[in-house]
Specification:
single chain, 392 residues, alpha+beta, SH3 type barrels, Fumarylacetoacetate hydrolase, domain 2, 2 domains, 5-stranded antiparallel beta sheet, 28 strands
Amino acid sequence: MTGTRRVAVAADSPFGLGNLPYGVFAPPGGEYRIGVRYGDDVVDLAVLLDDSTFVRSTLNDFLARGPRHWREVRERVRELLTGPLPETAVHPVADVRLKLPVAVGDYVDFYASIDHATNLGRLLRPDGDPLLPNWRHLPVGYHGRAGTVVVSGTDVIRPRGQLRTASGTPEFGPTRRLDIEAEVGFVVGVGSEPGRPIRTEEFPVHVFGVALVNDWSARDIQAWEYQPLGPFLGKSFATSLSAWVTPLAALTEARIPLPGQDPEPLPYLRERDAWGLDIDLTVRWNGVPVAHPPYRRMYWSPAQMLAHLTANGASVRPGDLYASGTVSGPERDQRGSLMELSWGGTEPVEVNGERRAFLEDGDEVVLTATAPGADGARIALGEVAGRVRPAR
């Protein structure tokens, strides 16, 4: 007979009852299934809820069920976690295998931080206005490569591509300016119909939750190729996604007003109650904290990004991912990319006694984040880790 036990989680745990992020895991010797993280354990929802629909290798089917179902499941799980749990439902996080939580059909990357856009503008156009004329009128973005979105912990192979030389002609080889971008991603739940834009007020109907993203970038490949069409091979080789998706319901206390938008956006981007999220990120480079980007300073809101993404009639599907673009602040230690931190390589960062500008083979970058939760507690978003391996 299967026994039961209570799971003790500290009151200040960043993965307590107020959080409960969703992921896809496999216990030792078992098949993949959906669970929630609770403290240092993963709770198997198929066993806890006696529901075989949670024996799935992605969250997509669950996401498609919509907000009412998400709410009912969350409330039931929170209720059951306060009592004894079936022993077979509880697995230490350290013992399970985690995979990409969603099957990403489409991936869009935005450029929504005014501090990041200003920094890059000053680096790339030192004699001009750092913000291009369109920047304050629309959330600038590009369509990324969904097939190379990988789960946290996956190694990143140094990409190869065309690099500009001193003579002005290109050569082909491994990037010398491998970079990271600390971002916040939004996971679509309910899809939309082609030809029907999503209004800003419909955001909570269509978006399930939030997950950290590292959008790796090869700055030298990007610099040669991006004009006139934008990012391509300099971005498409890898985008790392957290194994855990934090539901929007866990981030109620993190909602804050936007810093302000001038000029007023066009009608389709306006919100009755425009809000952002008070999320604090940390970037660790080979174990050393080098930056603390503040998401609270983002210019464009999550709802505005979704509205713009679909404004031309483009549709979204369960599991689609869109990300904020690099999160940065006005101070040097708030910059969410190495391009900004090292100011294009001219101001190296000290990492374990070495002065560094961009990533070398063997380097590991880990992104973490926390946000206000209920009763003054902090909740954690699942980390994103990746180690650089040599070019093939």
